[in-house]
Design a protein that fits this description.
Largest sheet: 7 strands, parallel
CATH class of the largest domain: Alpha Beta
Number of strands: 13
CATH architecture of the largest domain: 3-Layer(aba) Sandwich
Helix content: 40-55%
CATH superfamily of the largest domain: Glycogen Phosphorylase B
Radius of gyration: 22 Å
Number of helices: 13
CATH topology of the largest domain: Rossmann fold
Strand order of the largest sheet: 3-2-1-4-5-6-7
Shape: globular
């Protein structure tokens, strides 16, 4: 079996982390998997995917779009598919979905197109280009042979949009367990509360700012560590003013988050919408309790009060504030939540499980495609 995984870009993010983990895990299972990123010539952001691929021993090829509506990329990909004789094309993200689906259409040898639905898409970019891509993604959706939803809520959402429920498999994201000597690190009796992710509206950055202000007005025991970048970075400006600035560290976007996870006692995910975020899986794999809003696929990971804490979307700021203050004072509860969180990842959300289920789905789709081809020829 030869599989081509198409990434949307080379930027740092959960989707590209998924691509790296999937390629790595499937290769270890004996599957021949290649990774290709759809890139733009004018993109000057850090090529995280290329760097991470190099560190992981994965060759990341690039399919360059020289300009908007560069449909020559489709024909270039078709030539690659024919020459390398791939059996499956697996895409994620509107641009790679479109190019992958169009490239597999009309080939003499049928190549199934599979799409991963990384949560519920909310349109935050209202540009003409984005509207066009999203519309074309919708128009070509029926050309995908099968879909992977990373959580049950996303599957339910896309079924309502018209995708047959039998054509969507729920396969949760998974991560590998890091080697850790101890569950928590105590930094001079300070409790380090972290945030890792994109600084954008759907991630609840305004909620995060209010939580920080509320907590620091009531406790001098807590410090905050914010990692990430995005369009709402400007909202962090009030945190740079005294006396708050002495308790908040903003480090921007980093390529290696592991050293920062090892400093954290708690992590916040105050999102308005989510799929099955890698940051939650990663934090829990390090034994860090998560305080998150009850949205998207988060209830499928978190059993509130057992392995982390979920709060109501209607009272996000108030409930997160109170939960941080309570857990900051209760080392035993933090430890118990952290141990249970790590066990949850090992038993249900490991990279191994994600790759095994994906491989089973690939085999099922290939068998079904072969049966269809046999009937057509007969």
């Amino acid at each position: 079996m030869k599989v081509l995984i198409l990434a949307e870009n080379t930027h740092m993010g959960g989707i590209n982390r998924y691509c790296i983990d999937l390629v790595q895990g499937l290769n270890e299972m004996g599957v021949s998997v290649s990774l290709m990123a759809i890139t733009r010539r004018s993109d000057d952001r850090e090529p995280w995917l290329l760097n991470q691929g190099q560190q992981s021993g994965i060759v990341v090829r690039q399919l360059v779009m020289h300009y908007f509506l560069d449909f020559s990329a489709i024909f270039r990909l078709r030539r690659i598919l024919k020459h390398a004789r791939f059996d499956i094309v697996h895409s994620q993200g509107y641009r790679s979905n479109i190019i992958g689906r169009l490239a597999t259409r009309g080939l003499k040898r049928s190549i199934p197109s599979i799409t991963t639905l990384h949560g519920i898409i909310t349109q935050t970019d209202d540009s003409r280009r984005m509207r066009f891509y999203l519309k074309l993604d919708l128009m070509t959706r029926s050309w995908s042979h099968h879909f992977i939803a990373v959580d049950q809520g996303s599957k339910n959402h896309y079924v309502k949009l018209g995708i047959c429920h039998e054509n969507i498999s729920v396969i949760h994201n998974g991560v590998s367990l890091p080697n850790i000597d101890r569950v928590f690190v105590n930094n001079n009796h300070k409790i380090i509360v972290g945030y890792v992710g994109r600084l954008s509206k759907e991630k609840g950055i305004d909620y995060l700012i209010n939580v920080i202000k509320n907590v620091l007005s009531l406790s001098s025991q807590v410090e905050f560590l914010i990692i990430g970048d995005g369009p709402e970075k400007y909202l962090l400006d009030p945190l740079k003013e005294a006396p708050i600035e002495n308790h908040v560290t903003c480090v921007g976007q980093v390529s290696d988050i592991a050293p920062y996870y090892r400093q954290m006692d708690l992590i916040l995910v105050p999102s308005r919408s989510e799929g099955l975020p890698f940051v939650v899986l990663e934090a829990m794999s390090y034994g860090i309790p998560v305080i998150a809003t009850h949205v998207g696929g988060l209830p499928e990971i978190i059993v509130s009060g057992e392995n982390s804490i979920l709060v109501s979307p209607d009272r996000t700021v108030e409930e997160i504030t109170q939960t941080v203050l309570v857990l900051a004072k209760d080392h035993n509860q933090r430890t118990a939540l952290g141990i249970s969180a790590r066990r949850t990842i090992d038993e249900r959300f490991s990279q191994r499980i994600m790759c095994q289920k994906t491989l089973e789905m690939y085999r099922h789709i290939l068998r079904r495609s072969s049966e269809v081809d046999s009937r057509d020829q007969g």
